[in-house]
Amino acid sequence: MSHDLMIEICEEPDHAILRLCGRLSLRTVPRVREAAVKSLFGTGRVLIDLSRLCSPHPTFVTVFPAALEVAGGWPSARLVLFGANAATRTMLRFTRILDTVPLAADLPSARALLEQRPPHVRRHRDLLLHNTAPAAARLLVRESCALWSVPQAVREIAELVSSELVSNAVEHAHSSSRLTLTCTSSRLSISVRDYRPGPIPRPGPINIDALRGRGLHLVAALAHTWGANQNPDGKTIWANISLDSR
């Protein structure tokens, strides 16, 4: 046993089972993440047995959705948890982990959940401070929308919105950025986080003679809802697009 946690890996023909025995901690989380990501890249389908896991701190269970995102997210990477005790189940629900990583009662149920789409599917991409970043954002939108069967009209709106938000990070924040896409049964959410502290931008009056400077007006017009959050080292601008957008 290392740092009070053992990880047993069982390779099945079309999936892997990781059995965690002990305690998640600041020291053991990286080992769990590494094992989960490696198995997800290997088989694309991983079940994690929590039945012998001591009730973990809410901070540490974020390792499960983080590993899933690193491996590319659903449907190319599929991750299901099972066997959690009552305390761990409650904590997983409270932290919203189960939005993206389903939880089953036992191994047979977990295998069945591998075939089902989670309530939320998510992908992200870190983009450099470079004039090619908006094009990379559009590419991630196209790839993700194809995987998630998002309607064409929504995809086109999402490409425009993501391109404008990433352009703002490059041209105004002068920062690299992280683009995150989240899809539910009713909406596609786009968020772009930059890494330059400063005030949250607001759409100003439109200068009809200007060639640029209309990005947030476009986002506000296309998105169902949008907003911005302040971070200690930057800001995040987000937009929600309804899947029945026309």
Give the N-terminus to C-terminus distance in angstroms: 56 Å
CATH class of the largest domain: Alpha Beta
Average of pLDDT: 91
Q: What's the name of the CATH homologous superfamily of the largest domain?
A: Histidine kinase-like ATPase, C-terminal domain
Number of helices: 7
- Strand content range: 25-35%
**Biggest sheet: strands, sense, closure?**
5 strands, mixed
Element pattern in H and E: EEHEHEHEHEHHEEHEE
Tally the beta strands: 10
Query: What would you call the shape?
Result: globular
Helix fraction, binned, reads 25-40%
Main sheet strand line-up? 1-2-3-4-5
CATH topology of the largest domain: Heat Shock Protein 90
Main structural class = alpha/beta
Q: Mind telling me the C-alpha Rg?
A: 20 Å
- Per CATH, the architecture of the largest domain is 2-Layer Sandwich
* Domain module count: 2
pLDDT < 50 runs, ≥5 residues: 205-213
Q: What would you say this structure looks like, in words?
A:
There is one protein chain. The relative contact order is 0.10. The radius of gyration is 20 Å and the shape is globular. It has helices at 29-43, 63-70, 86-94, 107-113, 133-147, 152-171, 215-222; strands spanning 5-11, 16-22, 45-53, 78-82, 103-104, 121-127, 177-183, 187-194, 225-231, 234-242. The longest helix has 20 residues, at 152-171. Strands 1-2-3-4-5 form a 5-stranded mixed beta sheet. A 5-stranded antiparallel beta sheet has the order 6-7-8-10-9, with helices on one face. Helix 1 (29-43) runs parallel beside helix 2 and helix 6 (152-171) runs antiparallel to helix 7 (215-222). The protein starts with a strand and ends with a strand. It is built from 7 helices and 10 strands. Helix content is 33%, strand content 28%. Residues 205-213 have low confidence and may be disordered. By secondary structure, the chain is α/β, with parallel strands linked by helices. It has 2 domains: 5-113, Transcription Regulator spoIIAA, CATH 3.30.750.24; 121-242, Histidine kinase-like ATPase, C-terminal domain (Heat Shock Protein 90, 2-Layer Sandwich), CATH 3.30.565. Strand 2 (16-22), helix 1 (29-43) and strand 3 form a beta-alpha-beta unit.
